[in-house]
Design a protein that fits this description.
mainly alpha
């Protein structure tokens, strides 16, 4: 049997980039009034709002930062746990 391990740092980085890009795209879409996205952006504002996020042009970058941070931490923990469970 092949032992398949995840590279935790690379997985965390990929997750951070992905979640950050999704948060930025969601905010930009909400600014352009793409159907359905303002509701999701309002939900995102309930999570990141206390840390400066809003549906605005600066919010695109703030959302990308917090999305990257959250994706990096959560998916890094996921990869670490996966590696521990596959020993």
């Amino acid at each position: 049997m092949v032992d398949m391990k995840l590279n935790v740092k690379k997985f965390a980085l990929a997750g951070g980039i992905y979640v950050g890009a999704c948060a930025a795209a969601l905010t930009a879409g909400a600014l352009l009034n793409v159907p359905g996205l303002p509701q999701f952006a309002a939900m995102l504002a309930s999570f990141y709002g206390p840390w400066g996020y809003s549906v605005s042009l600066p919010g695109v970058f703030i959302g990308a930062f917090w999305g990257f941070t959250e994706g990096f931490v959560h998916l890094g923990l996921f990869a670490w746990l996966y590696n521990k469970l596959t020993r």
